[in-house]
Design brief:
14% strand; 14 helices; Aspartate Aminotransferase, domain 2; binds pyridoxal-5'-phosphate; alpha/beta; seven-stranded mixed β-sheet; globular; 390 residues; three-stranded antiparallel β-sheet; 2 domains; Aspartate Aminotransferase, domain 1
Length: 390
């Protein structure tokens, strides 16, 4: 077999999301697109915001000299200046251009950071459930993922985190608003975590994975992790907020409050290069700088969230509304989430089992579907519930 054993094993455990997505393509070909309700993939289905598309057109039309070649591996200095100013304004932390590195999305940022900080066997704490790719990102750099369970409402269990920290712990990956649960970590929780980390006798960094930071509902305000956690690395992405996941643009920001921030940035510029990213896509760096604070259509997402939650609750499901991101993580009416996903699939409704995120007994539904899909899927959800053994 030409494929490495490690990769063969990882493939076996790899993404339920992709598996269900592919199942969806097969079913759509078989039953017709209109008869399949696909809630699997977190891929925004609307156009990017108008100001983003306008900035892209301006950039391509202007075609400034040197805009397609290599640039400093960290990205165009002018772009990083603009984005650092924005981050300064949001966090109150003194981010400068030299603290930002343009990346291939948030996944590029996380891999770049992990490569720079992990020696073989070093540990990374991940609150569970979690985005399923983290385990592979950590393994990419010979690290060891240490899963830590969260409380019943998916908030951080700080005692469990404290108990999981060892001299080998190098990082904790936080993701707020959270995929798959939609939870936003409170300011009080982040402050408690900061106190815990400051009490340690070695540095544990928080990698704050923030691709959903624009998706906050009910006019809530999301606490800025970098404003609270001293040893913070932000992994930012435009994939979700601007519906540009295919363009691969984001950035990594190292807090200037982290001791050794400049040294770490030097290392990350190198790791971004040797991982083969070299630099983030050039045109999209300029678009990111020129598009200001472009936002997704939050009212539309919130309306879909409410419609889905109300419909499922009326059908008899146990539902609690996500505070942010664009997923509903819902308890399954039977303990076996994979069996329940199969039941739903037989009704033409595609979802992802909680097992794919390390938490059985739940399914994840993405709100990145047309409103009409939500409405027309409801009879299928109701029939699946009726088929469940009591
Ligand atoms: C929690 C989380 N982190 C990172 C990513 C990767 O995003 P990007 O497209 O920015 O690499 C995703 C994508 O779904 C995600 O859900």
């Amino acid at each position: 077999m030409i494929v490495a054993q490690v990769i063969q094993q990882q493939l076996e455990h790899s993404s339920w999301i992709r598996r269900m997505f592919e199942e969806g393509l097969r079913m759509k070909a078989e039953r017709g697109v209109e008869n399949v309700f696909d809630f699997t993939l977190g891929n925004p289905d609307e156009d990017p915001p108008a100001e983003v598309l306008a900035a892209l057109k301006r950039q391509v039309a202007a075609n400034p000299a040197g805009s397609h070649g290599y640039m400093p591996n960290a990205g165009f200095p002018k772009v990083r200046e603009v984005l650092a100013e924005r981050l300064r304004r949001h966090t109150g932390v003194d981010f400068q251009a030299r603290h930002l590195l343009m990346t291939v999305g948030s996944s590029g940022a996380i891999n770049t950071a992990l490569k720079a900080i992990l020696d073989p066997g070093d540990e990374v704490i991940v609150p569970m459930p979690c985005f399923s790719e983290y385990q592979f990102y950590i393994a990419n750099h010979s690290g060891k993922m240490v899963p830590v369970e969260t409380a019943a409402d998916f908030s951080l269990d700080l005692d469990a985190i404290r108990a999981a920290i060892t001299p080998r712990t190098r990082a904790i990956i936080l993701n707020s608003p959270h995929n798959p649960t939609g939870v936003i970590y409170s300011e009080a929780t982040l402050r408690e975590l900061e106190a815990l980390l400051q009490g340690l006798d070695h540095t544990v960094v928080v990698i704050s994975d923030e691709p959903y930071r624009a998706f906050v509902y009910d006019c809530a305000v999301m606490p800025e992790t970098a404003a609270i956690i001293t040893n913070c690395i932000v992994a930012h992405s435009y994939s979700k907020a601007w519906a540009v996941a295919g363009e691969r643009i984001g950035y990594l920001a190292i807090s200037p409050r982290l001791a050794g921030a400049d040294e770490l940035m030097h290392a990350c510029t190198f790791t971004n290069r040797i991982l083969g990213f070299i630099n983030a896509p050039a045109i999209w760096q300029w678009v990111a700088a020129a598009s200001g604070e472009a936002m997704p259509n939050l009212a539309m997402y919130q309306e879909k969230r409410d419609l889905l939650c109300e419909g499922l609750s009326n059908a008899g499901y146990e539902v609690s509304k996500p505070q942010g991101a664009f997923y509903l993580f819902m308890k399954t009416p039977i303990p076996d989430d994979i069996a329940f996903v199969r039941l739903l699939t037989s009704e033409g409704v595609l979802t992802v089992p909680g097992a794919g995120f390390g938490r059985g007994g739940y399914i994840r539904l993405s709100l990145t579907v047309p409103r009409d899909t939500i409405v027309r899927s409801m009879p299928g959800f109701a029939r699946a519930l009726k088929k469940c053994p009591k």
